[in-house]
Automatic annotation (TrEMBL), chains A, B:
<feature type="domain" description="Carbohydrate kinase PfkB">
    <location>
        <begin position="22"/>
        <end position="283"/>
    </location>
</feature>
<dbReference type="GO" id="GO:0005829">
    <property type="term" value="C:cytosol"/>
</dbReference>
<dbReference type="Pfam" id="PF00294">
    <property type="entry name" value="PfkB"/>
</dbReference>
<keyword id="KW-0418">Kinase</keyword>
<dbReference type="InterPro" id="IPR002173">
    <property type="entry name" value="Carboh/pur_kinase_PfkB_CS"/>
</dbReference>
<keyword id="KW-0808">Transferase</keyword>
<dbReference type="InterPro" id="IPR011611">
    <property type="entry name" value="PfkB_dom"/>
</dbReference>
<keyword id="KW-0547">Nucleotide-binding</keyword>
<comment type="similarity">
    <text>Belongs to the carbohydrate kinase PfkB family.</text>
</comment>
<dbReference type="GO" id="GO:0005524">
    <property type="term" value="F:ATP binding"/>
</dbReference>
<dbReference type="InterPro" id="IPR017583">
    <property type="entry name" value="Tagatose/fructose_Pkinase"/>
</dbReference>
<dbReference type="GO" id="GO:0044281">
    <property type="term" value="P:small molecule metabolic process"/>
</dbReference>
<keyword id="KW-0067">ATP-binding</keyword>
<dbReference type="GO" id="GO:0016052">
    <property type="term" value="P:carbohydrate catabolic process"/>
</dbReference>
<dbReference type="GO" id="GO:0008443">
    <property type="term" value="F:phosphofructokinase activity"/>
</dbReference>
<protein>
    <submittedName>
        <fullName>1-phosphofructokinase</fullName>
    </submittedName>
</protein>
<dbReference type="InterPro" id="IPR029056">
    <property type="entry name" value="Ribokinase-like"/>
</dbReference>
């Protein structure tokens, strides 16, 4: 079972609009609501491809009621930690005219010390049946920045590898706890290392404690910096669609292959294939399973030869 | 008591943002939630100025829970009709950079025949203690377009004057029922009459059955076309602020003076003063009471002499 933890989940609402024109009255032609937050999206993708998973998340008042109801309906296995604050909402404005995706992200409510402890206790209780721990998304406001680091250390003690997908101080402190993989995107990586070159920045994060750094490069795929080498993986073709949740699908692919102890090229292929399939899914956490099957064979993976900067094709 | 009916209420959420840039991730610096819908805003303003009022509205699932809780907390007297569908949400995006106000309005859920009947029964029960009936806002999806007309006729039979503030077919059919006042804005008026000139369009609505037509002209104030003459009222100065709810505050002013059987110039003065005070209030339904007191003396009202197009100052 792959355990995902989402400390700052959200009710994800998607409005389909014409053009997003500021200073006007906009009437969404479609409104979709679902349980969200990055770890919930990861679990949703894992569940869709038949992987045993549990999404662990705190759920509070306000939009928390709708989040609970939708997640129960979805069939994605989950465990809730009930909290006193209001669960936040994130709103995605999808324009059908110019394909822009605009996100309105509420900050969320802080967790009390006791609520954090309950969440950590639940991780501790679930770890013995977990093959991978995924820590995903922002921390709630006023959290200790080492919150993910504590969970990662707990997993390491239980012999469970961790995947960390967050940003800023939570990423830097989490990296120090030695996760198996961190998956920043290019701007998160630049922000937390101060380095423009993704490879140099990924190496800097490895030097700080991460076993491997997989950088998501949007439509250009993934760059992997590992103890066994450096790889680049590219999707077989550019895609148009909803990119919200594509990074979460990549994390699902990473966790899936980490659980199977696959080679890095296979990890990358899976991550890029699921990420592409997610762009074609209508909402964050949806994947086009047929496209995923085809793309898994079509992703281009090449090992980067660091001596002469040459990238050689790899097909294992 | 002034009775307001809001068949399609909403949880009003206001996000305070920097610039609204499409295709970006926006993090609101402040999030406010309150019970909304035009008739609820009208009741809120009436309550704020000390006028006895009751807001009558259907409330369903989803955001209905938050709407209920907020309205109870607000102290605004209200009566709920419980319904099975989800209550909608409207989101206001307030940019602090360029003062734009962008609205995201969900359509709402349809009311069943039985739910409509319960709402009408509640109006019938409350009318004997009402001095004015206010019918405000859009009808829920799939409503009979004569829904407001039925309520207005019920009020007329009970000897209670009605104020109607809606648009499209609901406005046209409502006008035919003979409300004391309809308050379209310039674009609603143009849309439903096909006439560009506000005075000509207002006369057309009077000819269709409205006793008086008060057209809101945004920052330019109000134009009143009545059986006793035509008046223009202008705020004393241009104002910057949140214009959402300014029209509802104007309706509150109209209802307030209609209940007091005031002269048209007094009705207009009150409507413009409350509307201006609402622009200075942070959220729809808030009014700056001190500004309202001062503006009530400062609004310029002039009678429009139709013979020579000359507008003469009026001070009664």
């Amino acid at each position: 079972m792959i355990l995902t933890v989402t400390p700052n989940p959200a009710l994800d609402v998607t409005y389909t609009l014409g053009q997003l024109v500021p200073n006007s009255v906009l009437r969404p032609s479609a409104v979709h609501r679902r349980a969200g937050g990055k770890g919930v999206n990861v679990a949703r993708v894992l569940h869709a491809v038949g992987q045993d998973t549990v999404a662990l998340l705190p759920v509070g008042t306000g939009d928390g009621e709708l989040l609970r109801a939708e997640l129960v309906d979805s069939g994605v296995p989950h465990e809730f930690v009930g909290t006193g604050g209001a669960t936040r909402r994130t709103t995605t404005l999808l324009s059908t005219v110019d394909d822009t995706v605009t996100l309105l992200n509420e900050p969320g409510s802080r967790l009390s010390e006791m609520e954090w402890q309950e969440l950590a206790d639940a991780v501790h209780r679930l770890l013995p049946s977990a093959s991978v721990l995924v820590c995903s998304g922002s921390l709630p406001p006023e959290s200790r920045t080492d919150a993910y680091a504590q969970l990662i250390r707990m997993a390491t003690r239980a012999g469970v590898p961790s995947v960390l997908d967050t940003s800023g101080a939570a990423l830097l402190e989490g990296v120090a706890a030695g996760p198996a993989v961190v998956k920043p995107n290019a701007s998160e990586l630049r922000e937390c290392t101060g380095l423009d070159d993704p490879l140099a920045a990924a190496r800097a994060l490895r030097a700080r404690g991460a076993d491997a750094v997989l950088v998501s490069l949007g439509p250009d795929g993934l760059l992997a910096c590992t103890g066994e080498g450096v790889w680049r993986a590219r999707p077989s073709r550019p895609l148009r669609g909803n990119t919200t949740g594509a990074g979460d699908a990549a994390v699902a692919g990473i966790a899936l292959e980490l659980a199977a102890r696959s080679s890095w090229p296979r990890v990358l292929r899976q991550a890029v294939a699921l990420s592409s399939a997610a762009v074609l899914g209508p909402l964050a956490g949806d994947v086009d399973l047929e496209y995923h099957r085809r793309e898994l064979r079509a992703v281009a993976v090449e090992e980067v030869d660091l001596e002469d900067g040459h990238a050689a094709g790899v097909n294992r």
